TrEMBL record:
The keyword Iron applies. Its cofactor is Fe cation. Coiled coil: none annotated. Belongs to the pirin family. Fe cation binds at residues 56, 58, 100, 102. It holds the Pfam family Pirin_C. Keywords: Iron, Metal-binding. This is To pirin. It comes from the Eukaryota. It comes from Aspergillus sclerotialis. One of its GO terms (molecular function) is metal ion binding. Residues 22-120 form the Pirin N-terminal domain.
Amino acid sequence: MSLPRSIRTALLAVEQAEGAGARVRRSIGTRSLRNFSPFLMLDHFTIGKGAGFPDHPHRGQETITYLLSGGVDHEDFAGNKGTIGPGDLQFMTAGRGIMHAEMPHENPDGSPNVGMQLWVDLPKQLKMCEPRYRDLRAEEIPIVKVDDGRVEVKVISGQSHGVDSVRDLAYTPVWIFDVTIRPGGRLSQSLPKGWNAFAYTLAGESIFGSNDKTQRIKEFHNVVFEQEGDYVEVSVPDNAEKESRFMLVAGQPLDQEVIQYGPFVLNTKEQVYQAMMDYQTASNGFERSRGWESEIGKRMT
């Protein structure tokens, strides 16, 4: 017998300054929500002209960037360059070491660049793997419609109602859905047993939960589900003024210690100290950082 997942907590993501001129709503990686394996951080970011994330290193994690509007350029010390636009994603595996920059477009109409960035932990045996990138374009993402078209699910990663996503985008198994529910719509989404899961609300008002255990959640909240259960249920009342939109994400927990210092995420303090030393001395994965400067990062100078 399938059982619904109940809500553990729902947290408002308060906007704050981050990076150089960016505004961020952080909901995972805060004092209220840590150690939610495999998730390390979730940022809902807004970056405009003169802002961005110039040259900086990473080791030991994966970052998944989903652009909601605008454009973001990327460049790293290995010569990789790219741009993601509305609805596109970039899956970056930092592995043993990467140094890169992420800078926003200057949109002709002056509009900001808005997106989500999720940090996912790497299993300890993959912490020192070679870095890699995988882009996923908006047109590659399959879409499934349910409940007579009142519900639309973009299947970024995982499976929804018999529709599979593009495969092998991240080393750590994660399911990611971008869900829109029109007034009167209802979604029942199965999730892998034992995985941690959350929903981040982007617009409108959604009713999460089943039967007599429901909560009405407004935008910019992170809804954390209990680990027990087989599916998540979400609905929007018939008389709602507008549709709701949210990200639904689930990931396989990792049974390992998490020691994080800024952009370095390892399993012991010694490994973090080593990462700092390797970065400072341009060694053990950071060799190409010596003297490197991104072209896109120079926009801020």
